[in-house]
Design goal:
Elements lengths: L3 E6 L3 H11 L4 E7 L3 H10 L4 E3 L2 H5 L6 E4 L7 H9 L3 E5 L6 H12 L5 E4 L6 H11 L6 E9 L2 H7 L5 H17 L3 E9 L9 E8 L4 E7 L11 E8 L3 E5 L7 E3 L2 E3 L8 E2 L2 E2 L1 H15 L9 H20 L3 E2 L3
Parallel strand pairs: 1-2, 1-4, 2-3, 4-5, 5-6, 7-10
Antiparallel strand pairs: 7-11, 8-9, 8-17, 9-10, 11-12, 13-14, 15-16
Length: 334
């Protein structure tokens, strides 16, 4: 089997997770990496035996051997590398959110339409097996028509402090849940009312709540609090409640089912999205990257998450951010 040669643009914390998956994936060669930090580039290239390393991603995209790239830069730096990669006719896996605005999403999508490369946006929650089971039960009509949804995705204060100057809770984490709500209802959001609460002196509020109205008649609430107590014994409080006309579904997404009490105290290791199992990075991240590679190898359309669906999630949280600023209901315009 011919190996698909992959490059990674942006090798921070999550870019390295991509490197760990691709470097151990059958039928894939982690061929190139790009980051502006020279020492980081050297470390990652040595650690994962990457053949070519570049401080300028444009030089990497000029390499004809590379078939696909992961773009794992910060959201405000998504447009340029994603568009350049698509213009070079590479297959592109772009981490969520697709971009920091609907307008920038449309720019990326226009480049994808003109490219022979495929575009997939990394909405990892759609590859959480629990979310997939929920979706299947909804499709089979097990709970009737969805009328109410409430999602919680809260983080300890120290984690929030690391990112609140870069992104808001609504845009950073709320987008996961609004995308799941769109996926579960298969309905468009018509309006949103949101509130942000600033507790500490960061660029973005520590807390973001948003209430979304759907064309189907359902209502959905996302709760994102990035200042749980420092001694919180888990890294995320993630729950999802779905009420239908004939039943309900409850997901405790933050409980991995594994609890450890050691010298560092009581904690729950992450065991769903990117756990390390038998020396390999596994979980939902591996599943979605494997799906991306499968669609490339078999020349299949990417259907689990489409660019248009990803744009709709950005449209929703962009409107929620505006609602926070203006303190009023915002109607979504398409």
């Amino acid at each position: 089997m011919k190996k698909i040669k992959v490059g990674i643009i942006g090798i921070g914390f999550f870019g390295e997770k991509h490197a760990e998956v691709f470097s151990s994936m059958p039928g894939v060669e982690l061929y190139a990496g790009s980051t502006r930090r020279q020492e980081r580039l050297r470390q990652i290239s040595e650690r994962y035996h990457i053949t070519y390393s570049y401080s300028d991603y444009r030089e990497m995209l000029a390499n004809p051997e590379i078939e696909a790239v992961s773009v794992v830069t910060h959201v405000d730096s998504h447009v340029a590398p994603a568009v350049a990669a698509l213009q070079a006719n590479k297959h592109v896996f772009l981490e969520k959110p697709m971009a920091d605005s609907v307008m920038n999403c449309q720019t990326i999508m226009a480049a994808a339409e003109a490219s022979s490369g495929k575009l997939m946006i990394g909405h990892i929650c759609r590859f959480d097996p629990r979310a997939a089971i929920i979706k299947q039960n909804i499709v089979e009509g097990k709970i009737g028509r969805i009328v109410s949804m409430h999602a919680t995705r809260n983080l300890p204060a120290n984690i929030g402090a690391e990112v609140l100057d870069k992104i808001s809770p609504i845009f950073g984490d709320g987008i996961h849940d609004v995308d799941l709500m769109n996926w579960f209802t298969q309905s468009q959001i018509t309006q949103v009312y949101a509130r942000g609460v600033r507790v500490r002196n960061f660029k973005n509020p520590d807390i973001g709540w948003a209430m979304y109205d759907f064309a189907s008649g359902a209502v959905g609430v996302t709760e994102t609090v990035w200042m749980l107590p420092e001694n919180t014994p888990f890294k995320i409080d993630c729950r999802f409640e779905i009420i239908g006309t004939e039943g309900a579904i409850y997901l405790n997404g933050g409980n991995s089912g594994l609890q450890i009490n050691d010298a560092n105290g009581f904690h729950q290791p992450e065991a769903v999205f990117w756990p390390e199992i038998h020396g390999m990075r596994a979980g939902a991240l591996r599943s979605e990257l494997a799906y991306f590679i499968h669609c490339i190898r078999e020349n299949l359309p990417i259907t689990v998450i489409t660019p248009q669906e990803s744009l709709e999630a950005v449209r929703a949280v962009e409107a929620a951010e505006r609602s926070c600023r203006e303190e009023q209901i915002v109607k979504l315009v398409r």
